[in-house]
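Suppose a colleague, Dr. K., hands you the sequence of a protein chain of 135 amino acids and asks what its three-dimensional shape might be. Before reaching for any lab equipment, you can write down a predicted structure in token form. Begin with the sequence itself:
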Amino acid sequence: MMGMGRRWCPTNPTYDLRHRLFISAFVIRASEFVIEHMVRIILPHHLRNLAQADREVQVDVQGEVTQRSVLAALEAKYPALLGTIRDRLTQQRRPLVRFFACEEDLSHELPDAPLPQKIGSGEEPFYIVGAIAGG
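The predicted structure, expressed as tokens, is then:
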């Protein structure tokens, strides 16, 4: 049988305080946890030269994998690409640049629309392609 001292139970104020501190510490740590995805990107020749990178580059994207987050991670890793793929002010895709992933043209999708799951897992690459124009 337990002694006559204070017991740990929900009605004990000491227990309640310790419980609240534990829960608040857990919530703070959980809010600091951000899922990071490794995304593979295939660059066209002219952007490879500008970035001085290989054909395929890998970037870490935090949070949801979207065109905007992938391009932001790419431009952060390779600052020479700032303004080449999308306009610096409007963040809109340049007219002669196309995006492909999982055999789909994603060029006209919204920048904040989630990309296919296979892109976020690194299973499939995200292609940036220079469109050909002329006559």
